[in-house]
Design a protein that fits this description.
130 residues, alpha/beta, 6 helices
């Protein structure tokens, strides 16, 4: 399983907006189009930081990286419980987690960002992932 710190996205822009970005790149304000877009996104997220924080609190979401280990899932299953995981960022299910254990211990999984898990784990949890 390939682990990355970034997720690739695709956006559609109008010709005029793209031309304006290219002009700023040409003038040296940004290194390239991606640099401009990343900066614009970070600036907007900073401007909306209070709204994001309130929403995270309201929905009891975890922020950042959430590693889900085999040991955690085994302990949850042994206790007869299930996890309801909500993450803003990256959720990673350890590569040594079996399909059976994942289905037994994970009741629901909400990820606003990216989920990294083996394909068979994702397939087994598809009815629990939102």
């Amino acid at each position: 399983m390939k682990l990355t710190d970034n997720e690739k996205i695709t956006i559609n822009l109008g010709h005029v907006d793209l031309g304006r970005i290219d002009l700023l790149v040409q003038e040296g304000f940004y290194g390239n189009r991606s640099d401009f877009i990343r900066t614009a996104i970070r600036n907007q997220l900073t401007a909306e930081a209070d709204a994001v924080s309130r929403s995270i609190e309201r929905h009891t979401l975890e922020m950042g990286l959430r590693d889900i280990s085999r040991a955690e899932l085994e302990a949850t299953a042994e206790a007869g419980e299930v996890l309801h995981i909500k993450v803003v960022g990256l959720a990673r299910i350890a590569p040594d987690v079996s399909v059976e254990l994942a289905r037994k211990a994970i009741g629901s999984l909400t990820v606003l960002g990216a989920l990294q898990a083996r394909p068979e784990i994702k397939a087994a949890l598809k009815d629990r992932i939102s």
